[in-house]
Amino acid sequence: MKKVQRLFLVKRAVGDAPSMERATFLASTAVSDRYGDVVDQASWKLANYIANPVIQVDHDYRTESTVGRALSAEVKDGVLVVEIQWGKGARSQDIAQKVMEGLLNAVSVGFVPGHAMRRSEFPADHPYYADGHGMAYYDNELLEVSVVAVPANPDALAQRSAPDIDLNALTSEIARRLIAAGALSAPAPTPAPKPNKETSLSSWLAGDK
Q: Rounded distance, CA 49 to CA 158, Å?
């Protein structure tokens, strides 16, 4: 099973301040990361994750690195929003304390890609088009969300906001800015590659060029 771990634009969601019990993150958006990759937000597959909503540390899948669970995980206004409930154990509370103090500010998503397409093969006017080697991922199955120290995206930092700002207003504003920047597309069927340039996900995962 090919697993992908990517860090994207991550902002601490507005609402109640992070506590030793809970915190809310905007865990993924369609912005391009340092690898040149984008993840389509409209096609997330979340059912299996919701049945086992683990919060890990640094994509370590051992049980001792499980520090919480997601009370909810859903796409709102083109952004994957995850509400975390921290565990009661010592390590869980240590991570919760660091998030509450602002020492840790980012999360990362681990997922199994369902469909991948080179961004260079999109039409030039498509929001995901890029002249390079980056990939666009669709129909991705979310496996876990990890608290991490160093994000791949330079903007992947939690933002502490005033508690009187509405969460829906924040996510709508982020979506508006991404659309304005041409980085976020409206939900649409998975696009087909250009003629004679079809990309095989299985061959790409196998390392073929």
A: 23
d(CA 11, CA 14): 9
User: Distances from the Cα of 87 to the Cαs of 21, 46, 93, 200, in angstroms?
Assistant: 8, 22, 7, 41
Environment class of residue 197 by beta-carbon count within 10 Å: exposed (0-12), middle (13-18) or buried (19+)? exposed
- As a whole number of angstroms, the longest Cα–Cα distance in the chain is 56
* Cα–Cα distance list, 170 to 28, 60, 165, 179 (Å): 14, 30, 7, 14
What DSSP character marks residue 21? S
Sequential pLDDT tens for the chain (209 residues): 555 555 443 444 444 667 889 998 888 888 888 788 999 999 999 999 999 999 999 999 999 999 999 999 999 988 899 999 999 999 999 999 999 998 998 888 899 999 999 999 999 999 999 998 899 999 999 999 999 987 654 444 443 443 343 545 555 555 555 555 554 444 444 454 544 444 445 454 555 55
Q: How would you classify the pairing of strands 54-57 and 66-76?
A: antiparallel
Indicate the residue type of 14: V
